[in-house]
Specification:
The structure is a homodimer of 135-residue chains.
Chain A: H1 6-19, E1 25-26, H2 28-35, H3 39-51, E2 55-58, E3 64-67, H4 76-84, H5 106-124, H6 127-130
Helix pairs in contact in A: 1-4, 2-3
The structure holds a DNA duplex (30 and 30 nucleotides).
Chain lengths: 135, 135
DNA sequence: ACAAATGATACTAATTTAGTATCATTACGT
DNA sequence: ACGTAATGATACTAAATTAGTATCATTTGT
């Protein structure tokens, strides 16, 4: 059981790296060298972050990526959602065909409860909580 | 992002069904009919539960499965572990090669914290919480 | 113009999850 | 004893998800 995929993990590392630089920026090349993440994969992931306005990018020579916002305003939950879809711990496998197991749905309620807790935690966790500036 | 696989989901349904029967038992055939889960898949899963002493089985005519314990003593966490391995929300992808990203490991601490909360909740959740007897 | 950067997109590979098939073994009922 | 109804063990295939690659287009600074 693993809540985080490698993409999310990489994304946090990359963002963390940028956060610790004075200008909050870096190029894909730098990040590849520093973090040992396969370059094309990293690039794709950075583009994704740009699309979702977590990063801003500049093309061309001297270009690169920079944080689009204060790291304090980048939520862990947001990153997870970008790479792993909506935050839910369980989606009823029978959702389409009107669920024939109403009886079991105490499960869903109970899980919903745990789910809510987790989501609240993930929302409350900011990039700055994941990566300490000084470290 | 999905915390539960279908196997775990099915397992809860199957156990819930058995829990609501007077003898806490059923055959694979009954369960297939009642829960609309593909039979060979269900059988495999029931065998797994038997191996882990959540169920007891009896072979031969008139045989079948029964809960090996009071449903109050079957933890949700245990079921997840059986089908999805150890409860961890994140395992450092760099664990082998001594992690070159000590800097980022605030992430690990923070995630560890959320992880612990989730695990505690899952441990505290019993089969009886997932499936109400009367329902 | 050229080099250094990202954007877009389509593809392959690896891993995990879901599901199938088959034969062996056990136990009840006659 | 035999047939039938059940699970045990195991090996396999299929589908879905995740990880990673490749390529070409576009932009920008010098």
């Amino acid at each position: 059981m693993n809540l985080l995929t490698r993409q999310t993990d990489y994304a946090v590392r990359a963002l963390g790296y940028m956060m610790r630089r004075p200008e909050n920026n870096a190029t894909a090349a730098e990040l590849t060298a520093a973090l040992k993440i396969p370059r094309p994969f990293l690039r794709k992931l950075l583009q994704e972050l740009t699309k979702h306005h977590v990063l801003r990018s500049r093309k061309g020579a001297g270009g690169g990526f920079e944080l689009a916002r204060d790291p304090e305003k980048i939520r862990f939950s947001e990153l997870i959602e970008i790479f792993q879809g909506p935050l839910r711990l369980n989606h009823c496998t029978f959702r389409k065909k009107p669920c024939p197991n109403k009886k079991v749905c105490a499960m869903r309620r109970r899980i919903g409860c745990i789910e809510e807790m987790v989501i609240n935690q993930l929302r409350a966790t900011k990039l700055t909580d994941l990566v300490q500036k000084g470290e």
